Amino acid sequence: MTTFIHPLLALIFAPLLRGIINKTKAFFAGRQGPPLLQTYYDISKLLRKGAVYSQTTSWVFLSGPLAGLAISILCLFFLPFGNISACVSFQGDLILVIYLLGLLRFFTVLAAMDTGSAFEGMGASREMTFSALAEPTMLFGLAAIARKVHSFSLTPMIHDITPQIWETGAPTLALVISGLFLVFLAENSRIPVDDPTTHLELTMIHEVMILDHSGVDLGFIEYASSLKMWILGSILVGLAVPVRTGHLAIDILATLAGMVILAIFIGCTESTMARFRLRLVPQLLVGACVFSIIGFLIQ
Amino acid sequence: MLDLLIILVVLTNLRLLATSRLESLISWSGFQGMLLGVFALLSRWSHMAPDVFLVGVTAFTLKGVVFPLMLLRLAKTVRCNREADPYVGFIASTIIGMLAFIASLWLGARLPLPGNDMSHLVLPATLFSIFSGLFLIISRKNAISQVIGFLIMENGTFMLGVGTLYYAPFLVEIGALLDILVAVLIWSVLIRFMNRAFGNIDTQDLNKLKG
Predict the structure, then answer these.
(1) Which of B7, B91, B102 shows the shortest C-beta gap to A175?
(2) What ipTM was assigned to the predicted interfaces of this complex?
(3) Total-model pTM
């Protein structure tokens, strides 16, 4: 029963992360900001609406949001949450998770290309360029941890991140976490890579791909992207918060607190930084890759 | 703790390879100097003596404060192009840096130093500093970037000395630091002359000196 805790927690709390980020940003700007549960309201409103489809689109366009949501829910079953094991775990499951995220992106991009709009094609091309740079960072980062704890499966890997490992391998862990954090920002289209609040601007990446989606489809996409943020966040928090007491409630609370702190930290980053010029984004991602490769090399 | 400092030195090296602005090149090299000063103090913390302390503090002030300030003033007076004019671009430099780091790790594993019990990363990081310094010298046109390349190389040798020996003669270390001080002074005079002769500090122009 305890193995299903993480998917349940994720399905319930994932949209809350965005609410926390927006509240933090509002605090910095001196505004009251949208309510903490705004993402839930948005999604439930979208789910009640009908969708409009362009005549040029085909079944590919329809399958994009569905596949996106299905894949992100599937991902949750392979992910441990702090000390709580994943539902399914086997050697090499971290590669599966990374490529499930790749598949998610593939369907989003395909749906964007299916609209036939040049604008969405541009967004799709940017998304693919940047994720091609982000993927090696994730692989090298997780490989570095795998080398540290001698296991290629996420559950034992995150389970073994104890305070002792932090004492002996702090440099590796710190490098991997900073690399993964930059990937987290890029993959979830946060500032400084992409601005999730802008529309119809030439530098945006993720938002441009979902411009043609509406109603239920858009709701699915919003929910799937919240889940994606939760997925990457739970890996980050699993590495950064070494609370492994074996006591169920304490472990869950510590990791949840880690997620909240991560969201607040992203809010602070977004409030204090401007978005990079598009030309600088590959440099940022190469930097992230360097972090995790160095983490992989030194042991 | 020492490992963390060494990795920060490695990361500053990569940052230096990837930076394009002269000012940030100078300030990052200064940051690396400060890191080395702290490294010199921390690595011999258990064997602390007045002269060891003096070496660490002198390294910190010279490499971390004095050189960057001198170079920043120099860059201001010659009013040169603020770009560092690399022959090799950002991503290519980073990749070359990564390859150099891998090569240094390989070399460091093959060259065990007798009596080195501080950290197994000292030798690779030293070699990497020397490689990055050399790379900065050959890949940048701007004369000030070349001076920084030399300083980075010297930082590498300083780290080797500090990181492998618990006790080196005081005179040797202070002497080496003074040498660098004099070298930087001479370079700044030379760069000023160069600026007066050519109107810029592009080392390509030195080819015109052929008789």
Answers:
(1) B7
(2) 0.82
(3) 0.90
